[in-house]
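Let's sit down with a protein and look at its sequence and fold side by side. We need material for that, and I hope you will provide a protein of your own picking. Once you have written the record down, we can walk along the chain together.

***
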Amino acid sequence: MATAALLISDITLPCISGRTLACKMACKGPLVIGPIKPVRAIPISASQNLSAGARPISSTLRPSANSPACSLDRRKARVRAGQSRRPAAASGGNSSGAGAGGRAGAALGHDDLSARHLQRRADSMPEGLPRLKARIAIAMASIAAEARPAAVRRAGRLLDRELERQVLADGSHVSRNPQASVDLLFDLLPLRQSYINLGHEVPAKLIPVIDRMYPAVRFFRHSSGDLALFNGASSSLATDLMSVLRYDETAGQPFKALPHGGYHRLSGGDTTILVDTGKPLSARLSSTAHAGCLSFELSSGRNRFLINSGSPRFAGERLRQLARATAAHSTVCIGDVSSARIAQSSRLGKIMLSGPSKIEVERQTGPDGSDRLSARHDGYVKRFGVLHEREIRINEQGTKIAGRDRLLLPDGLPTPNLPGAEVIARFHVHPTITVERSDDRKIRLVAPDGESWSFSIPVGEIAIGEDVFFADVSGIRPSQQLEIVFEGPEIRWFLAHHA
């Protein structure tokens, strides 16, 4: 007879677009939860299909004889046998040694030792996505296993509490990572459907939070269909985004800004510009944040032209930390020093110790329909004594973009002199774009389908440098970047679209 076991370390249920729901938990070894109720509306995944002639899976799935779950069942049987010989001790109910973790674990049933272990660890997990993933796994376990109704309700309440903590009012995640919202939806959508299919009451916050997250996902989606690369976002297939957005019941135009997440979106015609105008919400939530304040990405039609380098999905810690530097983003860098300082302590983790503390943003719509964004940050004030201000304006048709970067004194006045270190504005080019030089002050960016933009400056010289793109689906790959060295307190740059 075909058998199966449900592992908390890799809860596998069929998901939208054939993708599986995988709640990867940072725990020691696989945690087995059984038995499992079958979900009628969600078919068993391909890896669990029965071979020809095999008997149907029963309503109670049991682990195979050689699996870790089998030995766990034998240990539990011995415990129950001992309890039956000592009914008085078993009924004593002394839980003083269990503490809060033991009471939480009991919510999923006394036999589910692994679930109790996960419950005890949930609140001690790193703040942010890992803790929310744990709550999602516990909620799924409570409805998939034979848990009491009170256990299901408790798991739902704890999930609600964590969702409210981590999903901001504008739908963005507290990590400010655009990819976090997409990853969460791949887990939350099957969880919502499982609650409904099994006849359980859906947690009060689950559906409102899902509806709140969808506009944020659309906000970060480029005109090419790809996800923006800010604050830890890595390679994400456009088909993944399409799969998630298929279930969007709040369809509409993307917001112009995410005020709680700290982002702005400018658009015109088929052109989209996304700008990072925020900072980490707290030091504890900054372990994956990037020093890319005022960086931007530009997409047009089916192509991404100017981007950030992104975060590598399959790379070591050294490259992950390099990807967090200001130089890996399309923004201004002074003396090759990042605008935020990242801790190197193994005790604290790779959190941000300092960075922009005050970011001022101004948004205007011109009488000609143009959209203008102006923002400044103080990330370089302590070391170099200057503010960085960036202004971007796009016309209504989305065919012309004007930009200005300048350095200001802390009081907002233009600085009379440059800092003692070199100031460079970098514009990272997507690896699929061909860079062609017209002259010292003009560059042509050509996409594979022939669409192109010309990048120009009125004075100075544009340098073309070697670059690395961390966030490609195939791994790290070489690319190019445009570099403009400041010769005065400000530079101006222009982009013009060519069909």
Q: What stands out?
A: Residues 6-90+97-166 form one domain.
